[in-house]
Amino acid sequence: MKIKSTAMFGVLSVLAACSGGSDGGDNPVAEYASDSDRAARLVAETSASSSTGVASMPTRGRAEYDGIVGMAFGGQPASLSEAEMIGEVDMNANFATNRITGELDDFNTRSGERIRGELRMANGRINGSGFSSDISGQLSGGSRSPGNVSGNISGDFLGENAASITGRGSATSDGGRLGLSIVGRRDRD
């Protein structure tokens, strides 16, 4: 009977490990891979798009943009595929007031570690067909987490009716200098 109990405990332990951590989340390795694939698709979709013409920018209403952010220590990641950490972008644009808000969160590392916390956008502005925002927050967990982060991002609206976004940023953190790269598209829900 003891052998059966030990075997059952082993099976349950494996199943528990596969179902995620104590926070109920998915596997960070799988999430990193999924976000990397999504980033590649978004980059392919937006690579042929040019900046939205200033005369074609929406002047009223709001839009939500969902996308991917990649970060790397030491400076700009040359591409999202080279990011050490990948997370999600949720940016809201108010075209009537020329303001943006949002957050960067749900980060996972290339080595399979979950990074907890978020970076919030503050003082976000739309200027012509571009945007800029301060970012700050705390990111913890993992063997090389950024800790306290403060910096900025800037980018462009792309395509007809500001259908997509792309941008870059830089920040200082407790773990060192960070470079950021973002890409996203307008949520059509």
TrEMBL record:
Signal sequence residues: 1-16
Gene3D superfamilies in alphabetical order: 2.40.160.90
Domain of life: Bacteria
Domain Transferrin-binding protein B C-lobe/N-lobe beta-barrel: 57-173
Pfam families in alphabetical order: TbpB_B_D (PF01298)
Name of the protein this chain belongs to: Transferrin-binding protein B C-lobe/N-lobe beta-barrel domain-containing protein
Positions of the UniProt region annotated as Disordered: 165-189
Lineage: Bacteria, Pseudomonadati, Pseudomonadota, Alphaproteobacteria, Rhodobacterales
Keywords on record: Signal
InterPro entries referenced in this protein's UniProt entry, alphabetically: OMP/PagP_B-barrel (IPR011250), TbpB_B_D (IPR001677)
Cross-referenced SUPFAM superfamilies: OMPA-like
